[in-house]
Amino acid sequence: MSSNNIKENLEKAFHWHQKVAESGHAEAMNNLVVCYYNGQKRLEKAFHWCQKSAESGHACAMNNLAIYYHVGMGAEKNLEEAFYWY
User: Fold this and answer.
1) Measured between alpha carbons, how far apart are the two ends of the chain, in Å?
2) Fewer Cβ neighbours under 10 Å: the N or C end of the chain?
3) What angle is formed at CA 33 by the lines to CA 14 and CA 64, rounded to 5 degrees?
């Protein structure tokens, strides 16, 4: 498998995660957080999907959202919101 195939597969994987996340699937939303945080370094997008995933009941996303608020990553620092999500 060439590196072009790997890149193409990553792009397809991202595409399908986004489609499923947009349909309301909390785990797919959380997977987008990982993509945006680790891959593209787009913290505002990571925060957006983390918030949606947390609001959908994803426990890991709830904890991560608390951290995002606690340190002001991808959104303004807000200790009250951090406390709520912890």
Assistant:
1) 43
2) N
3) 160
Quote the tokens at residue 12: 């397809």
| Cα–Cα dist 8/34, whole Å | 18
Six token digits for residue 81:
């919101």
Query: What pLDDT is attached to residue 40?
Result: 77
C-alpha triplet 28, 63, 45: angle, nearest 5°: 50
What confidence tier does 2 reach under pLDDT thresholds 50, 70, 90? low
CA dihedral 32, 49, 58, 71 (to 10 degrees): 110
